[in-house]
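Appendix B. Worked example

We walk through a single record from start to finish. Start with the input: the chain for RAB18, member RAS oncogene family, Astatotilapia calliptera, length 140.
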Amino acid sequence: MEDDVLTTLKILIIGESGVGKSSLLLRFTEDTFDPEQSATIGVDFKVKTISVDGNKAKLAIWENHELDRAEGLKFARKHSMLFIEASAKTRDGVQCAFEELVEKIIQTPGLWQSENHGRAVQLTDEDAGGGTCGGYCSLV
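Next comes the structure step. The output line below is what the pipeline stores for this chain.
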């Protein structure tokens, strides 16, 4: 039921070309894995609703940006974001990764204040202020 959904969260999956961003997206949303998955041309997008700590959230998940591991970790630390690794092939940490992300978002009061509505993180090299990584989870 749509009325039970707390919010819709927009999530961007980033990583190096060929590392399995689309496979992660498909494993999480459809619980499928294709070892012969072809490279994504353009953008892939899926929607899934999950429940974390009694709160339902609709996830709008985009997979469209290539970034190597070192750049991703640096970007996450700079913007105080989670940096999470999981395996679509073995299913290790996939559900946990998305649940952890939603839980952290729900537990961050600043994200729910009305003056923050419409704010987004810029995906550029410009300095946007320092920060420390809010969390790191490596399962592979």
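Two observations about the output. The radius of gyration is 15 Å. The longest strand covers residues 55-66.
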